[in-house]
Design goal:
This protein has one domain: Ribonuclease H-like superfamily/Ribonuclease H (Nucleotidyltransferase, domain 5, 2-Layer Sandwich), CATH 3.30.420.10. It has 10 helices and 5 strands. It has helices spanning 5-11, 15-32, 54-66, 73-80, 107-117, 135-145, 165-176, 178-185, 189-202, 211-230; strands spanning 38-47, 83-91, 97-103, 125-127, 150-152. The protein has a 5-stranded mixed beta sheet with strand order 3-2-1-4-5, with helices on both faces. Strand 4, helix 6 and strand 5 form a beta-alpha-beta unit. The radius of gyration is 19 Å and the shape is globular.
C-alpha cells in the first residue's frame, strides 16, 4: 500500500481516531466481562529517542538526586522530555488493562488519569508499590472507588496513623495479618511481568514527540496487549 508515513503520523493526532481507540478499549473489557476486578497497578517509562534507554538513565538520575547534585530545573526538564511515563492498571484474573495513561511530566499524573479512566469498570482491590504508600493516594482511591475497595501497599518507615479511616484500616490489615496481606500485595509483580511482556513485543521506544501522539501510541500498545489476552481463559 503506497501511503506516506506522514499521513499515518497525522492520524496519531486525530481526535476521532483517539475516540475510536478508547471505544474499542471499553468494548473489549465489556466483551471479556471485566467488572470490579482485583487489580494491580504500576508505572514504567518509555524512551522517546533511540539513543537513551529509560531504565539506565532513570537510575543515573536517581543516583545524582541522592547525592544532591546541583542541576537546574531546566536541565532536569530537558532530560525528562526524552522519556514518557506510563501507568497501567491491570485485572489480575484476565491480565487485561482497565486503566491506562501517559504523561511527559510525572508518573503521578498518569496514575491519576489512569485511575479515573477505570471508574466505569470499578475495582474490588488494588496493589501498588511504595511510591503510592501515602495518605493522599489512599484517600484518592477511596474517593474514586468507594470505601469497600481493598488497598494493598507497604507502609513507609515514617508512616503515621494520621489520615482517613481507610488509611487506618489499611495499616491495621498490614499489622494484624501480615503474611496474608503480603501474599496479596506481591501479586503486583504481575504488573512488572506485563510491562516486560509488552516491551519485548512492541519495543521500549515511542518514536513520537507530540503529547497526543505519545498517548495514542500508548493506547495502541495497551489495546494489542488486551486483544492478545482476550481469547485466553
Amino acid at each position: 500500500i503506497d501511503v506516506s508515513y506522514k499521513y499515518v503520523e497525522r492520524l496519531y493526532s486525530d481526535e476521532e481516531v483517539h475516540l475510536a481507540l478508547m471505544n474499542l478499549h471499553r468494548l473489549i473489557l465489556k466483551k471479556k466481562g471485566v467488572k470490579d476486578p482485583d487489580c494491580t497497578g504500576d508505572g514504567t517509562g518509555y524512551s522517546l529517542t533511540i539513543s537513551k534507554h529509560y531504565a539506565s538513565v532513570a537510575q543515573k538520575l536517581k543516583d545524582k538526586s541522592n547525592k544532591g547534585s546541583g542541576k537546574t530545573s531546566k536541565k532536569r526538564k530537558d532530560k525528562k522530555m526524552k522519556f514518557t511515563f506510563s501507568f497501567r492498571l491491570m485485572d489480575l484474573k484476565t491480565r487485561m488493562y482497565i486503566g491506562i495513561d501517559t504523561s511527559l511530566n510525572s508518573e503521578k499524573e498518569s496514575f491519576i488519569r489512569a485511575m479515573s479512566m477505570a471508574k466505569d469498570v470499578g475495582m474490588d482491590s488494588i496493589r501498588l508499590d511504595r511510591y503510592y504508600s501515602v495518605q493522599k493516594h489512599v484517600k484518592f482511591i477511596e474517593d474514586e472507588f468507594g470505601r469497600e475497595v481493598r488497598i494493598f501497599i507497604i507502609p513507609r518507615k515514617n508512616a503515621t496513623l494520621r489520615g482517613s479511616r481507610k488509611w487506618k484500616e489499611t495499616l491495621e490489615d498490614f499489622t494484624t495479618d501480615t503474611v496474608s496481606y503480603l501474599s496479596e500485595y506481591y501479586k503486583r509483580n504481575q504488573s512488572e511481568s506485563a510491562f516486560s511482556e509488552d516491551k519485548r513485543r512492541y519495543g521500549w521506544i515511542i518514536p513520537q514527540k507530540r503529547p497526543e501522539r505519545v498517548e495514542t501510541h500508548n493506547i495502541c500498545t495497551s489495546l494489542w496487549h488486551n486483544m492478545l489476552w482476550m481469547g485466553k481463559e
